[in-house]
From TrEMBL:
InterPro entries: ATP-grasp (IPR011761), BC-like_N (IPR005481), Biotin_BS (IPR001882), Biotin_carboxylase_complex (IPR050856), Biotin_carboxylation_dom (IPR011764), Biotin_COase_C (IPR005482), Biotin_lipoyl (IPR000089), CPAse_ATP-bd (IPR005479). It holds the Pfam family CPSase_L_D2. This is Acetyl/propionyl/methylcrotonyl-CoA carboxylase subunit alpha. The lineage of its organism: Bacteria, Pseudomonadati, Pseudomonadota, Alphaproteobacteria, Rhodospirillales. Its cofactor is biotin. It comes from the Bacteria. Residues 590-667 form the Lipoyl-binding domain. Keywords: ATP-binding, Biotin, Ligase, Nucleotide-binding. Residues 122-319 form the ATP-grasp domain. It comes from Marinibaculum pumilum. Gene3D superfamilies: 2.40.50.100, ATP-grasp fold, B domain (3.30.470.20).
């Protein structure tokens, strides 16, 4: 046995919080590490102790082996859990922990090193009799050898980086004419990403399923598997949806794949949790793809169908205890599906997004689980993987799990952060996914060459936003008033008056501004008409509002929505999982005029500064162009509202800025 009573978690985000929760439940003292950017992150608050290990960039913090080991020594940690990503599959880190007298909660450095190289791993698996995709994984790396081997293997084939993963250094080659370019680009990408340009070639298995087996091994001779996960729904070779069990799995196939996975782990004297990944062809043949020597992002689906805590098992094995489990005792119950919620902008080809989480509330209900790395107020920095949370649903059957997960996505409230939620909903709603037919070609076949595009808001959605913004502004005005009875709300002595909203939208396809007129009808009813439009009026009745939730009816049809008011003239709306950000152009113009007298120039919305055209000491006049902000797929000129002298410039070109962030200060002439 290896005794330790404290665990340092060498990671961040949702996986750090996940590990800390289990470790604390088992009675261990927990230590979090964090960069300067993560000082207020949820995993830091959750741990018993926390240590800052450096500046925001990962190489200076979460990838700095010496700083993490030093933090473990300083805090008296007895063990280190690497989570996934960062240093989780870094053999040098595992060795550094061992040399420092720290228990590494993972496999030995030799196993990490062997399986971290696709070429070496594949050679070892062939020796062990594990089915492998026909290909080339030799030492000779010159183009002539690779071209000859490609002809032997046949096209189409995959060019892959021998080191690393995540789709980097990977190319599909349809014919011999495309091989030279694929070799050149894959080698360059692999060298930049992993420090090694070594490549392997594999015959392309078209439209396969990506099926992985969760394995566990202890130091007492037990090696077993905990069933499989289907991770076929991928975008750019990155997993998006994972589920357990695989929809097309049979007991015979599970036994065969499980035996191969167990043999793969046994052949390298593996310890702890690992995942053996396979490609499963339409003909039922399966081939070894790679082995991940760590806990997987998608491990919760295995936990939900087996009832086991995989982190607890990792800690148990690292402490030298037996697993206490036999293969016969592993039973799969029901079905679980997980989706990864990312801070990314589907409208901008899924570019990672930054910002601050204005409000977060995960859905709750039977069979639901959320592993989150955020909370209300969390800043989303640009330095790390943009995954915010994992939403998981279990059901007694696959369809129940799918419906529950859809409901969870639609009921979860997330404001202030651009996310891929609507994209995930679209995936789960697809008939081919519902039927369990998705392969690795699913996203390309479903969304085509143009990829995913979010539909722009409809008049109905804009009208709902306008009514809720009208009421928020009305209530704010009432709060500032003296001796005004609420009975006078929505009443005017001159009769019913209309309030105009000219909405620009962010995060959807480019559309013209939506020009609306809102007219109170009394008793929480409103008529909304598009200014200049020929459509009849919509009637919206507000039944109830409670914080970020509202219940209303649109022309008699009930609608539950989530709403957030991030600032003057702005409203965010979320309904049935679709999110929209509306900005009232008229209110913004008025706010800009109000702020002009003080000479404080602020960002009108979240966006990127394309240009900053002034510097301290410059003389400006009202109307002078100060900066250009790109947001909502448009460029917005920021103009001086007064004559004066630029005192301070607080942002540079290229910076991402938040709404209302101070950019420039001008002293009036």
């Amino acid at each position: 046995m290896t005794a330790f009573d404290s665990i340092l978690v060498a990671n961040r985000g949702e996986i750090a919080s996940r590990v800390i929760r289990t470790a604390r439940a088992l009675g261990y003292r927990t230590i979090a590490v964090h960069s300067e950017a993560d000082a207020g992150a949820p995993h830091v608050a959750l741990a018993d102790h926390a240590v800052c290990i450096g500046p925001p960039p990962a190489p200076q913090s979460y990838l700095a082996i010496d700083r993490i080991v030093a933090a473990a020594r300083e805090t008296g940690a007895g063990a280190v859990h690497p989570g996934y990503g960062f240093l989780a599959e870094n053999a040098a880190f595992a060795r550094a922990c061992a040399e420092a007298g720290l228990v590494f909660i993972g496999p030995g450095a030799d196993a990490i090193e062997l399986m971290g190289n696709k070429a070496a791993a594949k050679r070892r698996m062939i020796e062990a009799g594990v089915p492998c995709v026909p290909g080339y994984q030799g030492a000779a790396q010159d183009d002539a050898t690779l071209a000859a081997e490609a002809e032997r293997i046949g096209f189409p084939l995959m060019v892959k980086a021998a080191a690393g993963g995540g789709g980097r250094g990977m190319r599909l080659v349809e014919d011999a004419g495309g091989l030279a370019n694929a070799l050149r680009s894959a080698r360059s990408e692999a060298q930049n990403a992993f420090g090694s340009g070594e490549l392997i070639l594999e015959k392309a298995i078209l439209r396969p399923r990506h099926v992985e087996l969760q394995v566990f091994a202890d130091a007492h001779g037990t090696v077993l598997h905990l069933g499989e996960r289907d991770c076929s729904v991928q975008r750019r070779h990155q997993k998006v949806v994972e589920e357990a069990p695989c929809p097309v799995m049979t007991p015979e196939l599970r036994n065969a794949m499980g035996a191969a996975a167990v043999e793969a782990a046994r052949s390298i004297d593996y310890r702890g949790a690992g995942t053996v990944e396979f490609l499963l062809g339409e003909d039922g043949a399966f081939y070894f793809l790679e082995m991940n020597t760590r806990l997987q992002v998608e491990h919760p689906v295995t936990e939900m169908v087996t009832g086991l805590d995989l982190v607890a098992l990792q800690i148990r094995v690292a402490a030298g205890e037996p697993l206490g489990l036999t293969q016969e005792q592993v039973a799969l119950r029901g079905h679980a599906i997980e989706v990864r919620l990312y801070a990314e902008d589907p409208a901008q080809d899924f570019l990672p997004a930054t910002g601050r989480v204005a409000f977060w509330q995960a859905a709750e209900g039977d069979g639901l689980r959320t592993d989150a790395g955020i909370e209300t107020g969390t800043d989303i920095p640009p330095y790390y993987d943009p995954m915010l949370a994992k939403l998981i649903a279990w059901g007694p059957d696959r369809e129940t799990a799918r419906r529950r997960l859809l409901r969870s996505l639609k009921d979860t409230i997330l404001f202030g952060a651009t996310s891929n939620r609507a994209f995930l909903i679209r995936i789960l709603e697809q008939g081919s996914f519902a039927r369990g037919e998705a392969t690795t070609a699913f996203i390309a076949e479903t969304f085509g060459d143009e990829g995913y595009r979010e539909a722009p808001p409809t008049l109905r959605e804009a009208a709902i936003a306008a009514v809720l913004q009208f009421r928020a502004e009305r209530d704010a005005a009432l709060a500032r008033s003296l001796a005004v009875t609420p009975a006078l709300l929505d009443w005017a002595s001159g009769g019913s008056l209309s309030t105009r909203y000219v909405y620009e939208t962010e995060g959807a396809a480019e559309v013209d501004p939506i020009d609306l007129l809102v007219r109170p009808l009394g008793r929480d009813g409103y008529a909304i008409r598009q200014d200049g439009g020929a459509d009849a009026e919509l009637r919206i009745d507000v039944a109830a509002t409670d914080g970020h939730r509202a219940r209303l009816s649109v022309d008699g049809d009930r609608q539950d929505v989530n709403v957030h008011h991030p600032g003057p003239g702005r409203v965010e709306l979320s309904l049935e999982g679709r999110s929209f950000r509306f900005r009232n152009r008229l209110a913004f113009a008025a706010a800009a005029a109000d702020a002009a007298g003080g000479g404080r120039v602020t960002a009108p919305m979240h966006g990127a500064l394309i240009e900053v055209l002034v510097k301290p000491g410059d003389q400006v006049s009202a109307g002078t162009r100060l900066a250009v902000l790109e947001a909502m797929k448009m460029q917005h000129e920021i103009l001086a509202q007064i004559d004066g002298t630029v005192q301070e410039v607080l942002a540079a070109a290229g910076a991402q800025v938040a709404a209302d962030e101070l950019l420039i200060e001008i002293e009036a002439a």
